[in-house]
Amino acid sequence: MSTVVTPRQPSVVIAPALSTRLMPYALLAPAFLVTLFIVFFPMAQAIYTSFFDLILWKPNASRFVGFGNYIKLFNDPVFWTALGHTAVWIGLTVPLQMGLGLITALLLNREFPWRGLARALIIIPWALPSVVIALMWRWIYDPNTGVLNDILLHLSIIQTAVPWLADPDLALYAIIATLTWQGFPFFAVMILAGLQGIPRSQYEAASIDGASAWRQFRHITLPGIAPVLGTAGLLRVIWVANSMDVIFVMTGGGPGYATHTLPLYAFVRARQNLDFGYGTAIAVTFTLLLGVVVAVYLMRTMREVER
Amino acid sequence: MSYFKKLTMGVAIGAMLAAGAAQAETVRFWYHFDNPENPMADLVAKFETANPGITIEAENVPWNSYYDTLYTSLVGGNAPDAAMVKLFAQPRLVEMGALEPIGERIDAWPAKADLLDNLLELNKAQDGQHYYLPIQYVALYLYYRADLFEQAGLKPPATCDEFRDAAIKLTKAPDTYGFGLRGGKGGWDQWGAFVLSQGAELKPGGLTSDKAVAANQWLIDLFQKDKVIPPSAPNDGFQEITGAFKSGKTAMTIHHIGSSNDMVKALGDKVSAVPVPECGGGHWTSYGDESLAVFSASEAKDAAWKWISFLAEGENNVAFNKATGQMTVTQSGAANWKLHERRFVDATVNSLPFAKVLPQNTATSEFVNTAWQINMQQALTGQITSKQMMEQLEGLFAQ
């Protein structure tokens, strides 16, 4: 007979020293404090400011108006115009960037000479500062001296120069085209990384089974890059929604209100009209709307962390 | 010991000098120059040599956001000690309590007598105080292509009717247009020549009179019906209108002497200038002022005053205007003016009798900064009528 000796569990667990337990918090504290100070504190202050009638050059006339700014906001036709433009702005820019990025990534994933160079060059629009891009495209679109009209006139596609940024029906779409050009490399690079993570063997197996190129794309490629598309798409929605620098430089929101999006409207009210109460009310409202998208993104990220 | 004595004395003197240097005042100064090669560094060096103990930190703040940045920094408590300022901003700055009265300093200033007549009076605030020291001025006039006018057998227009007639004759769309209108930011001063000349005024009831609405409609018609203005006009700013004129796309435009050297560089003798046309019996052009002010929150007011008055004196003012391309405010500087071709100086001087500034009131800032542009663009593109535009604008002044 033999006795199985089970190792005895120690009955008392010695707690790690207090300093060890506090260590993670101490390490996180600087980042937490900085975030608190530069993100949450201004956010709280913005909400607070939005309850006041605060015009910066009338510092003595400031007074508490409760939800007054919000009531004014919902009765403001410019707010609804800007909200509509914001929806078009996000709804077109992100899918276009994603589509163009996907095509680019598929092309760059093939074997061809100078592929490394092509991959490096494709990043240029993404690496340029927004203001430079906006100024560059402003001149490209210029009806008097711009190159776009020149090319279209030479090809006889149009008969007279089109005022791309001065026509209220075209201006927003012209800027969307600019932002699509600027943002697609981000998708291309992300998707390319996703594509390279799909094992070759899956494609080999599929082609042995006689799957066509389209079926391979639908059943191997797309599922392979779906997580990347989801995360990058959500991130991009948040960035595009907030981005107003390109619009501001290209048209300043005009002609009239034709290219006003909500962040731009908030900026114009707060910074150019110095109406901080109303400006922050717009910003807070927009933050709440965008909060839905942010919540979806956070849920996704959490799930991935838990996995 | 004498050696030690000397040493301690040396140390003491050294410490005193260091303390003196630490007390040296710094004047933060904001300005805006379009010209990339600006000689501010030379002026600063000259001033600092003449005034040891004062350091000037001069910062070129981009024009497009100049006032936004200035107002927010004033409220934020991070304003400069002195800055370049325009008259339209004075009511707001006064209301904010941001300006330091400098009337007494101006009276005691030896170079006061050298300032051009009437400038100080023009710069006086509504409360009767002096806050602004003039530094340069311009008046808007009409640039025209002398060669194109001659080919078409036309004379430079003196009235709005002649102006429209010439614009129609010189338009060969889409290659050339009669007039380059600035429909984007800052274009109110062109608009004023056509609308404020005809009795429209920035005050309650001043913009919605039939005559004012009709004058505004006339300008809109130049764009919509006569099509003598390039289709890009609603979005055009300074770069676009001067660019189009220099490239021969437009035959006339309205700007001031600040762009004349550039225009001559591109077009030579083919460009000339006359005062803006007289419209409906009235004559109005924008007096483009620029002054310097000291801010009340400054801790170095004396030094700041020394610096701004230095810039307004004879040859320093000429050097300053060399950079901005505008006109000196001093009599001694004007007597021997060589920075611009004579014809542009004449057009400026001939415009002075009817050159005006916008009314000094707090709504004017909003009119200039955003409201005019948004409404003009909507009217030009047919989203609102002339009357609606004028009602919207008048709403600003009703409060």
Automatic annotation (TrEMBL), chain A:
<keyword id="KW-1133">Transmembrane helix</keyword>
<feature type="transmembrane region" description="Helical">
    <location>
        <begin position="25"/>
        <end position="48"/>
    </location>
</feature>
<feature type="transmembrane region" description="Helical">
    <location>
        <begin position="87"/>
        <end position="108"/>
    </location>
</feature>
<dbReference type="GO" id="GO:0005886">
    <property type="term" value="C:plasma membrane"/>
</dbReference>
<dbReference type="GO" id="GO:0055085">
    <property type="term" value="P:transmembrane transport"/>
</dbReference>
<keyword id="KW-0813">Transport</keyword>
<feature type="transmembrane region" description="Helical">
    <location>
        <begin position="220"/>
        <end position="241"/>
    </location>
</feature>
<feature type="transmembrane region" description="Helical">
    <location>
        <begin position="170"/>
        <end position="193"/>
    </location>
</feature>
<keyword id="KW-0472">Membrane</keyword>
<feature type="transmembrane region" description="Helical">
    <location>
        <begin position="120"/>
        <end position="140"/>
    </location>
</feature>
<comment type="similarity">
    <text>Belongs to the binding-protein-dependent transport system permease family.</text>
</comment>
<dbReference type="InterPro" id="IPR035906">
    <property type="entry name" value="MetI-like_sf"/>
</dbReference>
<dbReference type="InterPro" id="IPR000515">
    <property type="entry name" value="MetI-like"/>
</dbReference>
<keyword id="KW-1003">Cell membrane</keyword>
<dbReference type="Pfam" id="PF00528">
    <property type="entry name" value="BPD_transp_1"/>
</dbReference>
<keyword id="KW-0812">Transmembrane</keyword>
<feature type="domain" description="ABC transmembrane type-1">
    <location>
        <begin position="83"/>
        <end position="299"/>
    </location>
</feature>
<feature type="transmembrane region" description="Helical">
    <location>
        <begin position="276"/>
        <end position="299"/>
    </location>
</feature>
<protein>
    <submittedName>
        <fullName>Sugar ABC transporter permease</fullName>
    </submittedName>
</protein>
UniProtKB/TrEMBL annotation, chain B:
<dbReference type="InterPro" id="IPR006059">
    <property type="entry name" value="SBP"/>
</dbReference>
<protein>
    <submittedName>
        <fullName>Sugar ABC transporter substrate-binding protein</fullName>
    </submittedName>
</protein>
<keyword id="KW-0574">Periplasm</keyword>
<feature type="signal peptide">
    <location>
        <begin position="1"/>
        <end position="24"/>
    </location>
</feature>
<dbReference type="InterPro" id="IPR050490">
    <property type="entry name" value="Bact_solute-bd_prot1"/>
</dbReference>
<dbReference type="Pfam" id="PF01547">
    <property type="entry name" value="SBP_bac_1"/>
</dbReference>
<comment type="similarity">
    <text>Belongs to the bacterial solute-binding protein 1 family.</text>
</comment>
<keyword id="KW-0732">Signal</keyword>
<dbReference type="GO" id="GO:0042597">
    <property type="term" value="C:periplasmic space"/>
</dbReference>
